[in-house]
Amino acid sequence: MCLLVLAWSAHPRYRLIVAANRDEYHDRPAEPLGNWPPPEEMLAGRDLRAGGTWLGVDRRRRFGVITNFHDLQRAAPTAPSRGGLIPRFMRQGAGAGEYLSSLEPEAAGYGGFNLLLADGRSLWYGSNRVAPFARELSPGVYGLSNERLDTPWPKLRRVRAGFEAWLSESAAHDADAAALFALLADSRPAAEAERPPRMGLSPKWEQTLSAPFVRHPQYGTRCSTLVLIEPSGALLLAERRFDREGRCIGESEYRLSEEAWPDSGS
Question: Which of 9, 13, 59, 80 meets the CB 3.0–4.6 Å disulfide criterion with 139?
Fold first, then answer.
């Protein structure tokens, strides 16, 4: 079950801050964070089964992240991949609100999803499991897992509390990105009394998935990602990748000033 915390226009230095864990089956192949060529021109990982991505930042510093929605309503076998929604946003070049308006008529044909999109002016939340389908978010701090935005699951409350403390401390001192990775690395399960109901899952799986960092040989946290974007466009994007045992097996980092962009293939 994926998890992310996000600050939009809520920090004196950064327009957008995101700290996110992507949970997935370990046997689902993926490429690490890298530079996609045009027409997307974004930095993102790539799901090699369906060709999409879960999180990306494009050359114009637009941002997108998607999580699946945990419910009993299964997607049709012919449903398009939810991971294609972010590359499509980058290709179209539209603002976040405009893109979601164009997506709404077909959104019901996808499996359940939560989608957060930011351009230089606004942050939007869209989900085909809530009404209205899309809404603009005001400046502030948000948390998302595989339910509605800000659903207070114990692991999300725990990470969000640490994130808000980091925001307060870093407002007065230089931001330490390593501290955000440490928040995402929390593998402590929630206490049994705190765990939300997990439809159709065994108690053992409930316990496993209740940790912010999920460690399991079949399904777990595959990568942790940080995004920090300044109003000028200066960007820090970093990813740590993990194996079945939860050990870090690779890291990628991009530090870009204003309108700078890495060479193709880097």
Answer: 9
Return d(Cα 29, Cα 217) in angstroms, integer.
15
CATH code of residue 155: 3.60.60.10
Beta carbons of 251 and 240 less than 8 angstroms apart: yes
Number of domains in the chain: 1
pTM exceeding the 0.90 threshold for the entire prediction: yes
**Reduced to 3 states, what is the DSSP secondary structure of residue 247?**
coil
In a domain, 151, yes or no: yes
Q: What is the pLDDT along the chain (266 residues), one digit of tens a residue?
A: 699 999 999 999 999 999 999 999 999 999 999 999 999 999 999 999 999 999 999 999 999 999 999 875 666 778 899 999 999 999 998 999 999 999 999 999 999 999 999 998 999 999 999 999 999 999 999 999 999 999 999 999 999 999 999 999 987 776 688 899 999 999 999 886 566 655 567 778 888 889 999 999 999 999 999 999 999 999 999 999 999 999 999 999 999 999 899 986 55
36 lies in some domain: yes
